[in-house]
Fold these 3 entries.
Entry 1:
Amino acid sequence: MLVSLLLPGRARDQDDPLSELYGLTTTAGACVVGTMLQKRQRPDAGTYLGHGKVEELTSLVQRTGADVVVFNNELSPGQIRNLEMATDTKVLDRTEVILDIFASRARTHEARLQVELAQLEYALPRLKRMWPHLSRMEGGIGMRGPGEQQLEEDRRIVDRRITDLRHKIEDIHARKQREVASRASEQTIAIVGYTNAGKSTLMNALTGAGVLVEDKLFATLDTRTRQWQLGRLGRVLLSDTVGFIRDLPHHLVASFRATLEEVRQANLLLHVVDGSSASARDQIAAVQAVLDELGCRDKPTIMVLNKTDAVRDRSYLDVLRAAYPNSVAISARCRSGLDRLERLAEETLCRQFVELDVATSASNGRLLAYLEAHAITDSRTYEGERVTVHCLVPRPCLGEIARLNNGWSDGNGHRASGS
């Protein structure tokens, strides 16, 4: 049974307010037998819904035989307990469903640790609901005495496990940072976007990676990186990342920070949007909120309006393109518009380069090797023992080139003499 309380200023998808929750619930493996909506100015402190609606919900649960009630809102532990007592049925909120999906789709050791941490941090303040009997334990060595409650012992166990998981994930994060930093000489692009926007389909279309594609929410939890041949820039590294969703639990964002290191270190973001969705603007805002939390607000970004083959009203797509000038409309499934995306990605990355003529001695092996590793070389001209390299150089590399060569030309013919 799906339930949603529509609050002022928070109501999204008015045509079908439960469409996203339906997708989450079916992805989690449940069968939806009924829905309920209520509009209120504010939630009820005790049961979230109004008392009349709680009675109606109880009747609906009994009539349909539902054994789980899923709310499209985040409930407090007390509200969940009161609703379960009133309906005599298990009650879950939106966050618990998302955590369950992540747990079922975690494949790698890293993803499993991250999901477990998020689940325990969510469950810790809710342990009292899980132990309503508050059974007592007998005292013993290391115990405070015969008065200790099972609840307090569980809290200590969970606290210790959370601490252990955080240490393990910090080690993973440090390793991930070193791994990403080792690609400093490479141009990296990260694909980000709302869940089920077509990120993995785009990854396959651009690189032939063959990653899993499913018409389900959160089909991808682990970052995958593949090579993409991008015009003049040659090989760049393209990473597919976990999808975002509105009101994504903070615990998940924090736990998956190591996985999202690719996003934080990328030179360019491809923000994939389901251009056929009536909720595209809300989805864009949800993704941007998570990117802000990751410190990626000012990172160069291309808005990729995907699924144009499913767009019914082209004028809506035109409005989106006008709202986001640095955007391109494509269909990853039909492989249309990919050439325009490649040109725009190349142009955007090239803005982070400086075109230079670097003049130096032909024996300056350190500088020439550095240029070979970090720059895009167009030509080399030899004059006796001197060599001039015409190239595109990433701006962060200019200082090191100056150190190795004591100067360079500015692209206008003003060559500096080097050692």
Entry 2:
Amino acid sequence: RALDDLEVMDAEAFVRALAEARDTAYKGVVRPVEGTILTVSKDVAAAAQAALDQGVKSTLTILERVVQAAAESVERTPELLPVLKEAGVVDSGGKGLFFLLEGMLRGAYGMPLDKPTVSAQPLSALVLERAGETIEPGQDWEVVVDFRPQARLDLQTFYRHLEDMGTSIQVGEGDGLYRMHIHVPDGTQYEPIEYVRTLGTVTKVAIENLMEQMECDEEPPHPMRLAPPEPGQLAAIVVSPGLGLSRVFASLGASAIVEGGQTMNPSTKEILDAIDKLPTDKVIVLPNNKNILLAAQQAAELTVKQVTVIPSLTVPQGIAAMFALDPGGDLEAVSQAMHAALHDVKTIELTTATRSVEIDGIQVREGQIIALLDGTLIVAGDDLQQTLMEALERGTADEGEVVTFYYGQDLNVKQANQIADRVRQAWPDLEVEVVEGGQPHYQLIVSIE
């Protein structure tokens, strides 16, 4: 707000902006707590104003003092908030603000951004256990709602109603759009949304299970929510090579999932068993791999049920087809729509060559990364990212609208996001999404739509 309509940010405008940021932050929290990012924002604004009062006119000099003040403020946060001192850590939000400000300073100096100036010390198991005990009861769900109020929003009344529902309440505002954040007990996660709907138009909702985040990584995953069909309805059986992909198929309405993929082809009997177990006689099967297509067709011939096999040869084709599934629709009409959907997507698969070979004029050495476009080898290289970029160029990614990366067991989400960021830089008009696939053998399965 302080910088609205300004073409140049001079020292005075910079100081005003930091003060406005501080004031906005404090207004956005129903009960401000010191020792958090709020304190750091206050100390930063004070340091900037002090420099200006001392006659400093250089924005860069003020920024230097601001970064120093932020660093010192972060180190003081444990003295202001007992839970931080008990855990032996500084406030994470305040530290994040420090990094943003330090990044501005580094950028001004042309310094690298990827070399850390501090190191984080790991918490011992005891500290983690004790820190876990300080979590407030009832903070099972995080709910964030964006909305436009129909009339002027009375913040005090708004806060009072929210306090009856949960904790960790924060409210932000900009250009007439409000964002409400709250933590609520299990079973009440929809109450804040319904309340906000009485005040205006909801534009976006995000709900996250906080208790699930606290569970140990070794605990078994929650069961997938498949879509059991009613008798007479259409049911879809899909073959999936990874847990993450199975969850995607389940979210799209799959009634049964058969594990399988490259080097782990399910048998005809496994597919037939899945067909026979469904409480309906109208079934659609998506093999999602050319090596599984024949087994699926044989299973369809061995059952008395009405079974249609959609010849999906890749996972992205199967996902595209699932968007055309209508459990209450006509089997032939839905099958035709799913057939048509196969042509709306291109698939790039990246894996490691297990032997040296020449295919279609492309020399491949054992251990290289190879890229397949709809099953045809198009690129071989020594670097995953570079091979992907070349494959995307040959796959005419610039003609697509959405690219989705399903990353496999050999990659983590950070690596996948780094790859996605590089693609966004190369094709800024593309919408790029990253989804955990969990598939073996293939580092990436890429969908171009």
Entry 3:
Amino acid sequence: MFKKSERSDAAEAAKSNLYDSGLLTRPDDDKIPPRLIARVGDLLWIIVLAIGIAFCFFASSFCITLLLAAFFSILFDPVITHLERWLIPRPVSAALGIFLGMACVAFLIYAGYGKVTSFAEDLPQYTTRIRDTLKPISQKIQKVQESAGSLNPANAGTAPKKVPVVRLNEEPTWPSYLVRGVGSVWGAIIIGGVVPFLMFFMLVRKDHLSLWAANAFGDRVNVDQFSARLNGMVRGFVFGNLMVGSLLALVSVGAFYAIHMHGAVAVGIASGLLNLVPFVGLILAAVLPLLAATLQFGSAGPFVIIVLTVLILHLIANNLLIPHLIGSRINIGPVAATVGMLFWGWLWGVMGLLLAVPLTAFVKLVADCHPSLIHVSNLLAQKPRPLPRWAVSSQATIIRAIPYFRPKVTTKAKSEE
């Protein structure tokens, strides 16, 4: 009997510890332990995040089409609203704006196709000039290899054995990276054809979409404030890049015109805009004018001026212009922007690389609207916000702070308290 009582006391003590730690719920306690809710919530978030990434990867063409349509709709909306004030119906103004935009894009593609065709025709001249320039260097390298071989007595008087070369017809990896997310040329054509129609319906049904968002998320998020911040972020990002790109293009045109380069206007504009491309912008902005200069100059002075101009503009843009004109509008840190470029570039290739900064800023906006994601928002932000007292205290306090996670207290429980 004494041993049974000791066992029962030990079992009661162990059960009491489980009750106190929150791992076990008391039979008369209807409240779910906060620690269990937090763990289940974290697990659900991980599962939802993994499913979302998998969906974005396998349904990349659908996601890119939707994002491009929403992105351009936000940019076109002020023009459509302004035309609406002139008593032009919104469907007519939206159709007119989209038609003019498509005409501008078609003109740019036509002009660019002509430049690319002329460049392809002149490509053998470029390769011959580059080969002639590098010929003395290759001859010196060959002489060094021959002299090194003559110093080895084991190889003296013996002819080198020819090793059979096996070549595999493998496709290069960079074209597949360029079309990742789009699929193929026909996929890009389909996306380009669907985006204008989707833009038209988004612009015409703007009020309907706003009402749906307010009914779906209005109890947890201030939809009007979120929409205003999203529109300001997208427009600020685009107009900031246009301002920086225009300034770089203007300085590049002036520098190339000063050295009397043929086609200085076209080459300078292209070099200035290519300087904004993440990661490889400096290389692209320097290669294009250097190729154009190979058929025009025989001395090293113009090449040095081109390289210094592109390098100085790249440093000024990335350290002064972009942080002040673009970084202040999107409020994401340089580390977050770089990691975002790596992630979205891995997910969708070049298209993800171009949309990486606004997509990362969108993730930050979503984190700003959710109280429990304030740590994620501060991780992405350029200037973190101070944490409130409820976010520092405990996870249980965060759960109680979220309205739809707050436990419902019955009238009976209130009377007992």
